[in-house]
């Protein structure tokens, strides 16, 4: 496994100097703030004392820390703060005055009930960019409905597209509904920060998981508009490209994707079926789709005569988009992952040396400082309250005694 290429740099990234108050939990919001942290923003994660982010309780664990929490909370600081207590609410407003962005993913109405609506926070800091991520957005008939990824996949048509023809619809392996909301949330925040550079004023952002996944239907939505029919699941095949999908080898399977004409010709040559490239029935994309079964059968008949390794070499030499189907471990240890620093080692304060995925965005010529491990609950509270709000150790101790904040004695001692 590779260590981070940013170890020799003190540059956090292009968002260095941007402070984000992170009220998110579970996945969509933490994924958004992790991306902002990867880009150099200071992320102050506000968590509920005692339990913290709900995913801290999701097994399995390493050093007492949840794999789930560790997966989406690097490059952040943690302050455990009770927002239901007026003192906690006042602390948050004081923090907002020192921040650029606040992001939350509660159900609509929760922030208002806490006395922390956009209007209240914008009055405290007119430059604040406020991003709310929710299941269905701030209006509409489903505004108040609960939602998790599989619910969003079902309601947006995405689940209906996934699975084998004639089979039971299957959710996507990765929680794309949640992650799409986080991705669009981060993009919206960056856009609003860019606007604020000109206007000097922040704004409110409304991102929903539902809208995000509808927006990612792409050509499938257009296919429905054009044909007037629901696209059907095609397994690993493409609805209007052939050959495209999973093909058998003698000891496994290989993905082959002939998206354009030149790849079809190259594939036929590489597999020794050049006569098919010359057949007028298969000369166009439309023709190949019309004769999908014939083509898939002929390609499969050839591919299954090779091992995965042999077939991979043939396809690589022919410059065909292709790949063996790797498990997650093999993907993380792949030479491309190593070369791109997509696995890094960090030192966690309780779990010790551990591996995490690296930053997905690179800045050639300007390596970033090494990623920091996800924080323990309340780990950075004393430092945040001292540095940003000027609180004394006595003030912090009194808040801890009153359970407004959670600050373990070990953390108090370490930060003193």
UniProtKB/TrEMBL annotation:
SUPFAM superfamilies: CoA-transferase family III (CaiB/BaiF) (SSF89796)
Pfam families attached to this UniProt entry: CoA_transf_3
UniProt keywords, alphabetically: Transferase
Origin organism lineage: Bacteria, Pseudomonadati, Pseudomonadota, Alphaproteobacteria, Sphingomonadales
InterPro entries: CoA-transferase_III_domain, CoA-Trfase_fam_III, CoA-Trfase_III_dom3_sf, CoA-Trfase_III_dom_1_sf
Segments of skewed composition (Low complexity): 364-375
Keyword flag Transferase: yes
Gene Ontology MF annotations: CoA-transferase activity
Gene3D superfamilies: Crotonobetainyl-coa:carnitine coa-transferase, domain 1, formyl-coa transferase, domain 3
Protein name as catalogued: CoA transferase
UniProt-annotated stretches for the region Disordered: 362-381
């Amino acid at each position: 496994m590779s260590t981070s290429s940013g170890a020799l740099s003190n540059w956090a990234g292009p968002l260095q100097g941007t402070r984000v108050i992170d009220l998110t939990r579970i996945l969509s919001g933490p994924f958004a703030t992790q991306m902002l942290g990867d880009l150099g923003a200071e992320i102050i994660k506000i968590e509920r004392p005692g339990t913290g982010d709900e995913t801290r309780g999701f097994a399995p664990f390493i050093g007492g820390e949840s794999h789930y929490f560790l997966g989406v909370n690097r490059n952040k600081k943690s302050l455990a703060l009770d927002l239901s207590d007026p003192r906690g609410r006042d602390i948050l407003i004081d923090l907002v005055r020192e921040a650029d962005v606040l992001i939350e993913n509660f159900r609509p109405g929760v922030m208002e009930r806490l006395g922390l609506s956009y209007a209240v926070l914008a009055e405290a800091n007119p430059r604040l960019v406020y991003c709310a991520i929710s299941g269905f957005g701030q209006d509409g008939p489903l505004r108040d409905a609960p939602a998790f990824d599989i619910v969003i996949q079902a309601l947006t048509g995405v689940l209906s597209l996934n699975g084998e023809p004639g089979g039971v619809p299957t959710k996507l392996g990765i929680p794309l509904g949640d992650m799409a909301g986080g991705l669009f949330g981060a993009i919206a925040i960056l856009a609003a920060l860019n606007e604020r550079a000109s206007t000097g004023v922040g704004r409110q952002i409304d991102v929903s998981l539902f809208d995000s996944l509808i927006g990612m239907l792409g050509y499938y939505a257009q296919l429905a508009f054009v044909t007037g029919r629901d696209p059907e699941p095609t397994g690993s095949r493409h609805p209007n490209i052939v050959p495209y999908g999973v093909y058998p080898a003698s000891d496994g399977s290989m993905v082959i994707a002939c998206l354009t004409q030149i790849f079809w010709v190259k594939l036929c040559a590489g597999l020794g079926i050049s006569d098919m490239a010359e057949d007028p029935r298969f000369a166009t994309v439309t023709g190949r789709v019309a004769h999908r079964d014939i083509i898939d059968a002929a390609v499969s008949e050839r591919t299954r005569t090779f091992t995965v390794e042999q077939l991979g070499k043939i396809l690589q030499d022919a410059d065909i988009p292709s790949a063996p189907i790797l498990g997650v471990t093999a993907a993380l240890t792949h030479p491309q992952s190593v070369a791109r620093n997509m696995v890094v080692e960090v030192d966690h304060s309780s779990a010790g040396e551990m591996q995490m995925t690296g930053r997905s965005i690179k800045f050639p010529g300007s390596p970033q400082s090494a990623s920091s491990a996800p924080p323990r609950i309340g780990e950075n509270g004393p430092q945040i309250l001292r540095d940003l709000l000027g609180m004394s150790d006595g003030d912090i101790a009194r808040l801890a005694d009153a359970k407004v904040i959670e600050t373990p004695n070990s953390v108090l001692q370490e930060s003193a």
